[in-house]
Fold:
Amino acid sequence: MKRKELLLLMELLVMVLVFSIAAAVCLKTFSAADQKRLEAYNRDRAVLESRNAAEILQSLDGDLQGAAEVYGGKAEEGRWRIAYNADWVITDSEAAFFLTAVLCDTEEEPLGLAKITVTDTGGETIVELPTAWQWEWTETCAEWGDNG
Structure:
């Protein structure tokens, strides 16, 4: 009689062990899926914020100070920098992500170029977006040539 009880107890312990391992695997899978979801969300938000910054720079002909006044962040030393918290709200403290826009030199006079980069606090690049715009046509531009 004791032998049957011992076998039953051993069988129950093995079942508990198997179900514990299965539960641990499921939890790890759900945790990995949640991490991937968060990475995808942050990448999508980084793309959205960099596109917004590109549109603002294009509309202001590359005026970094004007872009900072319109959208937020700080423009200093030829860079426009915006800090975001983990919820992608512009912040001055506890930043989780940084958007940096830097104007690039061009050989073509009416063309403006900038590189917009979104990084995390570890410095890892999430998104890098080049953007370009054409300067507003002025009388000085007309001196380049006559199409007529």
